[in-house]
Amino acid sequence: MPRMKKLLLATLTVSLALAGQSFAHAHLKTSAPAADSAVKQAPLELDLTFTESLNLKFSGVTVTGPDKKVVKTGASMLMDGDRMLMVPVSDKLAPGKYTVEWHVLSTDGHKTNGSYSFTVAP
């Protein structure tokens, strides 16, 4: 049985190490407009808050409209201790569903990406 205990302990150690690494990445914590929300007024900016500080030079978003065309956005800025990526929306958003695809580089060098959608109500 000592051999089985060593194997179990080694497996547990590796699992904990890998779990710790996944927590070291910048994950999307909140967004405005919120994911899967319906807003009455088209947003003038997108605010994406992450779990870690970001490197602005290697972080950004692409917004796609209901017609599958890319929405024009302005220069992104970091706010709130470099954890919030604020992206001005240059185009007037018509009613419909919009997809926000984001990619970020945390200041500790980890890349993450993802997407979410929101709807502008008619």
From TrEMBL:
Signal peptide: 1-26
Subcellular location: Periplasm
Domain spans labelled CopC: 25-120
GO biological process: copper ion transport; response to copper ion
MF term (GO), any: copper ion binding
One GO cellular component term noted in the UniProt record for this chain: periplasmic space
Domain of life per record: Bacteria
Coiled-coil segments: none
Keywords tagged on the record: Copper, Metal-binding, Periplasm, Signal
Similarity annotation: Belongs to the CopC family.
NCBIfam families linked: copper_CopC
Protein name: Copper resistance protein CopC
Naturally occurring in which organism (per UniProt): Rhizobium freirei PRF 81
